[in-house]
Amino acid sequence: MITLLLAEDEFYTRKGLLKHLDFPALGIDRVLEAEDGRAGLLLAHSNKIDILLTDVKMPHVDGIELAKSVRILYPECIILFLSGYSDRDYLRGALSLRTFRYIDKPVDTDALAGFLRDAVTLYKRLMNSAPGNLAETRKALARSLVMRPEPSFGASGQVSSDMSEQMQLLG
Question: How many CA atoms lie within 13 A of 93 on its CB side?
Fold first, then answer.
């Protein structure tokens, strides 16, 4: 069973995503909803989170801090950020947390559905890897990343999806 935590302080954005995304069709069995980072932390402490979809700038606890806490609780959690800001400091913070995707607002729900489907696939792959195999996979990916140029950010602030996936697997 895959659980997604959606933390978004903008009511209409949060409700719109819940209404327009077909989570079961994406492989997500359970969706938890938080109106800010503090509510997200409370949910994360009482529920196992497999995928985190969070806004970056929220009251009380921002998305970066929420993601840091979730990463500590659930190291294999797949993290996706939503943001209306193209702030490089937030991007750096997101990358340091092994972020799977940084998504600009306004959100294209079709694109987000694809990103969530990819996140589910990656999560399942991680969970199905034997611990020894996962360590070997991470080493091989680290070697391949050393051979690549430093990731660049496009106009949307996103790292390529294949680079993001590899960075996620590295831990």
Answer: 16
126-151 pLDDT, tens digit each? 888 756 565 555 554 444 444 434 43
Whole-angstrom Cα distance, residue 56 to residue 151? 21
pLDDT 10s digits, 10-37: 999 999 999 999 999 999 999 999 999 9
Buried/exposed code over 84-119 (b: 16+ C-beta within 10 A; e: otherwise): eeeeeebbebbeebbbbbbbbeebeeeebbebbebb
Q: What's the rounded Cα separation, in Å, for the pair 118 and 114?
A: 6
Q: Is 163 helix (H, G, I), strand (E, B) or coil?
A: helix
Q: Number of C-alpha atoms within 13 angstroms, CB side, residue 71? A: 19
Polymer length in residues for the chain: 171
Name the token pair of 141: 């990916």
From CA 63, how far away is CA 37, in angstroms rounded? 6
Sheet with 3-7: strands ordered across? 30-34, 3-7, 51-55, 78-83, 101-104
d(CA 170, CA 136): 10
Instruction: Please state, in angstroms and rounded to a whole number, the distance separating the CA atoms of residues 163 and 74.
Output: 22
The residue with tokens 């302080």 is 9
pTM: 0.73
